[in-house]
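Chain A, query sequence.
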Amino acid sequence: MNRQLSVIYFSATGGTAKVVKEVADGICDSYKEYDITFPMNRKESMTFDSNDLVIIGVPVYAGRVPKFLIDYFSNIKGNRTPAVFITVYGNRNYDDALIELKDTFESHGFIGISAAAFIAEHSNTSKVGTNRPDAHDLETAIKYGAELKNKLKDLHGILPSSKLVVKGNIPYKERLMAPPIAPDTSDDCTRCGICAKYCPMEAINKNNFKEIDSAKCVRCCSCVKKCPVSAKSINHEMFHKITQGLIDNFSTVRFEPEFFNI
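Chain A, predicted structure.
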């Protein structure tokens, strides 16, 4: 491939990163990687031109792109830059996240050539989308990348006349308005600091791991899933109600990846 491939992703619990990297591997052996999961990596601006190819991968939060990412994406600019948009959702629905991601980057100078929605284990519970992306998902992702590689051969003829269309509604669904909620920490905590190290919002006090800023917390559950002694958990009525609804309606259903191309 003659273009410089770059991948940009936010992946608090790892699912989005796995998918995006497999797609990239299907396109070429070497690419630039921008992991914007951590705040320190969301400070610099990025600029791409028409000779680049950019893959953007984000998780779906209640059917939308996380608001803090939309704010940050204003710092990423393209100049008729071909782009691939990927959302990863927890086996419920990606609703308007994919169209929101596409619209956001196309308004910043990118041209969508393809998009996909993949599935990962839900951040709230391991009972929904269990162990996904699994081997089949990752095989599908790398095949998708290989198909994109072939598509790139005809890219110059496609860009001026075609527009990428994906699922979703305008106006986008309203964002879920939740009260400030943060994980609790039990006495099992060993003060290893893993939770604070991997918190994508720097919401956990690095001197007192039980102290969590609920105004910063986005309930990604990174700390819950990464804690080696299961000392972190979210104990809030609204969170438990949403989680139980997910288990009741989506724990025995398997959705498959969807793809959209120009």
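The longest helix spans residues 135-152. The chain has a mean pLDDT of 95.
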